[in-house]
Amino acid sequence: MSDTILTLTGVQADIAQYHILQGVDLAVPRGAVTMLLGRNGVGKTTTLRTIMGHLVARQGVIGFDGMDITARATSARARLGIGYVPENMGIFSDLTVEENMVLAAVSGRLLAERRDRIFAAFPPLRTFWTSDAGTLSGGQKQMLSIARAMAEDRKLYLIDEPTKGLAPAIISTMVAALRELKDGGASILLVEQNFAVARALGDHAAVMDDGRIVWSGEMSELADDAGLQERLMGLSMEGK
Amino acid sequence: MSDAPDHRPTMAAVSFGARLDWAAPWLMVPALILLGFFAIGSMSSWLTLTVSALAMGMMIFVMASGLTLVFGLMDVINFGHGAFVSVGAFVGVSTVLALGHWAGAPSLVLNLLAVGLGVLAAMLVTGVLGWIFERVIIRPVYGAHLKQILITMGGLIVVEQVIVMIWGPDEIFFARPETLKGAITFAGAALEKYRLLAVAVGLAVFVAMRLVLRRTRIGLIVRAGVENGEMVEALGYRLGMVFVGVFIAGSALAGLGGVMWGFYQEVITAGMGEDMMVLVFIVVIIGGLGSVEGAFIGALMVGLMQNYIAFLEPKAALISNIALMTAILMWRPQGMMPVVKAK
Ligand SMILES: Nc1ncnc2c1ncn2[C@@H]1O[C@H](COP(=O)(O)OP(=O)(O)OP(=O)(O)O)[C@@H](O)[C@H]1O
Ligand SMILES: [Mg+2]
User: Fold this and answer.
1) Cα of A12 to ligand 1 centre, how many Å?
2) Are B93 and B262 in contact (CB under 8 A)?
3) What ipTM was reported for this prediction?
4) Rounded to whole angstroms, what are the CA distances from B99 to B104, B163, B310?
5) How far does the centroid of ligand 2 lie from the alpha carbon of residue B245, in Å?
6) Alpha carbon A86 to its chain's center
7) Which of B3, B235, B342 is nearest residue A103 as measured by Cβ atoms?
8) Do you know which InterPro entries this protein is assigned to (chain A) (predicted)?
């Protein structure tokens, strides 16, 4: 078994007539958290969507767990063991929280033990278990979206901005849940704008600009080098 | 957005009207029936008209239910849906006529057996036809509305011509099976037996669909897919397969609706499905695209409007349903029970 769970090699993808991903090279190590960072609009979400198969890679190869999945259908990729938390959360608002979770357990039942673990991480989901998911607050929806990815063990989690628009109290709930996932040995590719969260969770980091990966290395290296951050992302930890 | 995840909001501050909001569409049907009562004035006429209206509404619902899901799930506009209504009627009626000794016997069991076999044959044929239709006509034009409209209309014409080839160009008149003829008298009103049967069948179809949509995994997938198909696939479900299944089921239901409508009118023509489609589309639109409940309520309202107005003001009957659609769309532009679309 290779120690890389996901590799993108020269991946290009278009949205309508726009050339968005311009040759993404990325390796996501097994059993660690890899941060995908970069300014707004550089193609992070598009990269995740292309990995998931929502967008077709026009060029390049996507390898997952030793297989070439470039031409696979989205559902097949999911069944190979990729859990996806999209940027817009993808909640089924007409279904109850429970029904959202039941659907997420693709291979069968949502185990009680698993459900209790999710309740422990995200208590509001227990409170609103039988409510329509559409009535949840933004933060609760985000919890549900992550909980859905955790409904079964996945080989890889793709998580797009789990702290977007959340109050600090809920951000720490998210971080704790993701850390627990990480401590359980999960492989995670995490897009995050909140640098404090990135630093707290990330083992590795890849920085995108203009549809390409422009830097990759250890998260600690990036976190300790304000000049590098400034150059790559136009931000620095100073004052954060 | 709330920062207090454990806090459960109470309803205390919500006004009575707002609390009724979700139920408002459901109240429209009894409200219309009540309105009809006061407008018509005569108890017996009102009862007869109401049963006839509900029967008509149920049949339109059976025809519309598949169409609304097909639209909701894959954003496919199928103008050819009426073809399944016509084919269902011809296959179903032919089967029953072929079983003439059963249909003609004064035995309820034999009559229902004949009709049941006719329905089975109709649904089987329209189901298979739906499967072919999806494969050959719909699949190449996913995502292209104009092409969908044109090619499904083309498909409709082809199917109608095939009916003419097989059964001939003339309308076919026939009588209902023996025990389904006539009426029972209730509170001074004559209620046609067949209409009562149609109401029961329509209600059964609605309840069954609701159970499937709410209580089974496939139903959950369909409801989730109507809202966000991409996410359903990202969870590992093959939405394309689910869609084909829904298309086949919807076609078979249209076939059932065709048989029911055929026996209601006691005449069938190749163009009967096409004729029904105006009402079916009105129902799908006022119900809210993708909503089975909405289509159900919409169909009953259309049936009630059509029958009451035809009685009260025959000249206005033609425009009554367009007026109904306009009024409802002014109230709720997305239809009565719009399905949230995440895109
Ligand atoms: N539907 C679309 N049509 C045209 N351009 C699009 C569309 N969706 C995204 N883009 C463009 O693709 C580029 C990459 O978008 P993407 O969402 O991947 O960025 P991102 O890195 O996730 O940004 P953010 O940090 O703001 O979420 C952006 O420049 C965006 O404008
Ligand atoms: Mg993004």
Assistant:
1) 14
2) yes
3) 0.93
4) 8, 20, 36
5) 34
6) 7
7) B235
8) AAA+_ATPase, ABC_transporter-like_ATP-bd, ABC_transporter-like_CS, BCAA_Transport_ATP-bd_LivF, P-loop_NTPase
Q: How many residues are present in chain A?
A: 240
Q: Where are the domains of chain A?
A: 1-81+154-165+183-240, 87-153
Q: What's the gap in Å between the CA of A151 and the closest CA on chain B? A: 10
Alpha-carbon span A5 to A206, nearest angstrom:
15
Q: Token digits for B156?
A: 């409709």
CB contact under 8 A, B1 and A99: no
* Ligand 2: centre distance to CA B174 (Å): 64
**Distance (Å, whole) CA B120 – CA B281:** 25
Q: What is the pTM of this model?
A: 0.89
C-beta atoms of A102 and B217 within 8 A: yes
The rounded Cα B190 to chain-centroid distance in angstroms is 26
Of A78, A103, A138, which is closest to B221 when you measure between CB atoms? A103
Q: Tell me whether residues A90 and B221 touch, CB distance under 8 A.
A: no
* B217 shares contact with chain A (CB less than 8 Å): yes
Return residues with CB closer than 5 A to ligand 2 (ion).
Answer: A 44-45, 87
Partnered with residue B304 across adjacent β-strands are none
What is the C-alpha to C-alpha distance for residues A89 and B269, in angstroms, rounded to an integer? 50
Per-residue pLDDT of chain B (343 residues; tens, 9 = 90+): 444 445 555 555 566 666 677 788 899 999 999 999 999 999 999 999 999 999 999 999 999 999 999 988 888 899 999 999 999 999 999 999 999 889 888 899 999 999 999 999 999 999 999 999 999 999 999 888 899 999 999 999 999 999 999 999 999 999 999 889 989 998 888 899 999 999 999 999 999 999 999 999 999 999 999 899 999 999 999 999 999 999 999 999 999 999 999 999 999 999 999 999 999 999 999 999 999 999 999 999 999 999 999 999 998 887 888 999 999 999 988 899 887 665 4
Fold of A1-81+154-165+183-240: Rossmann fold (3.40.50)
Residue from A11, A35, A42 whose mutation best tests the ligand 1 pocket (most atoms within 8 A of CB): A42
Single-letter amino acid code for the residue at B194: Y
Pocket of ligand 1 (CB under 6 A): A 15-16, 18, 20, 38, 40-46, 87
